[in-house]
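Problem 12. The chain below contains 363 residues. Write out its predicted structure in token notation.
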Amino acid sequence: MKKILVITLIAMLAIFGVACSNDPTPAPQPTEPENGYENGEEIVDATFAAGMVTDESGVNDQSFNQSSWDGLLRLSQSIGANVSYLESDNPGEIRTNMDRMLDQDKDIIWVIGFLGAAPVTQEATLHTGQMYGLVDYNFGDDILPNVVAVEFLDNEASFLAGYLAARQSNTGVIGFLGGMEIPVIERFEAGFRAGAAYANAAHGLDVEVLVQYIGDFTSSAIARGISTSMVASGADVLYAAAGAAGQGTIDVAIESNIYVIGEDLDQSHLAPDNMITSTLKHVGEAIYDVSLRLSRGENIGGQNLVYGIAQGAVGITDFTGSTAALVDAGVHADTVALGARIASGALAVPANLDEFAAFEAGL
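Solution.
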């Protein structure tokens, strides 16, 4: 069932749990700002409104969509913005939900995920006075003047995950599960495989990477089956770039007592005895930043914005919690050092499988 949720400055408490776990802790209720400021942020336009249309994983996927929604919640808290979301049960509903958002008079309508590219283009062409934002896509020169696109270099974070997985593996077999075979997930795969290949070359390892795709971002049962098969083939570290479907992989890791890597958010609470790290993708920070700039009157339309390790937008979890409990400190330090090389430009990470093949051949 679709959910619609509107937050105003004086109604935050009632709905904050939507973006949290199944047992949320209520957030403090915001108070009216004094002298035009709240939480150090200038109140630019208390009537600013932003909406979000999720992909089929839904707002509580504990991953990509949830991080996006967290960004709008922060916007509501900091400048008193009116924010809301609509969930898409399937890709075909994205455009329908965008139309529904138009009736809510939003200053910007965010669409989450690569599959929103065509709907955003269609709607932005029809409604030239409406600003749209799309996450996980780059329109290149074809971007429309009332669209802002945000792309993340997931391959960079996945490179660190692949390197760490290869160093951590005891069997010499690790596994990657992708949601759908689309460019953004190919970036995850290319980066993960490149990280493992780099570890092999740098440390004399011979780690094999198993790869299989689920077909969507919701079928945790299919992810469970693939993960079980990978474990049977010897994999002792699994990484799923599959949104909500990744829960199936996490469940198998717990049941099989092997290692697992989380995606997009710190997911260590889902498997505290098995999760060696999570790749981080600060989608919410980007959505907050871009929306705030728009609220201040900045013209952000017609821009493709790219966020990677150098911008502090992607990476892996710190050496705390389950990571500190399961991973050797030296191995984690080596991984962090590679991140610094990527940020400086000294190490280029492949973003697709053709680039990966060239990268591996050059090691």
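Discussion. The two ends are 50 Å apart (CA to CA). Students who got a different answer should revisit the alignment rule from Section 12.3.
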